[in-house]
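Give me structure tokens for this 190-residue protein.
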Amino acid sequence: MLLPVYAYGQPVLKKVSVPVDPDYPDLQGLIASMWDTMYHADGVGIAAPQVGYGIRLFVIDTEQVDRKKGSESPTDIPFKQVFINAEMLSETEEPWTYEEGCLSIPDIRGDVERPDGIRIRWQDENFQEHEAEFTGINARVIQHEYDHIEGVLFTERLKPLKKRLIQRRMEAIRQGKVKTDYKMRFYNGR
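Here you go.
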């Protein structure tokens, strides 16, 4: 089932998400709907807060990344994974800048500096625990979605000048003055 993507301005996007337990109502249905919503919107990842659920859950599929010829960005073997109750354990000190975008903030992109490698612990959709290191695009997408469950948007990581340049466009999104090929839910201020 396709879910509406919550737009910039929705309070759930700025809250730290709560842990998920195996008894969460229809968790498998929510995960399936998140995959459907992400693919329909041509995303590479989506976090539960982006569809209105303040829980520590995100899904990624880096096979969706559009790899440009001649790119100097680190690459990894693409993978598809459900992350539940993720916990960032460590990050490399080596920064890497890459242009990011977000389904909740359509038509805005910007260069974000992030560590090029991470170590993370999480549970999968069957609540089996995993711990692994990721680099390159995989690490970047995980960090972006992890930020969502921590109440952080990629635009907060932009350089000050870029933040000023996009203020009007961000306000237009908050007010619902944006068109997308996927359904969005905007904040009505109540």
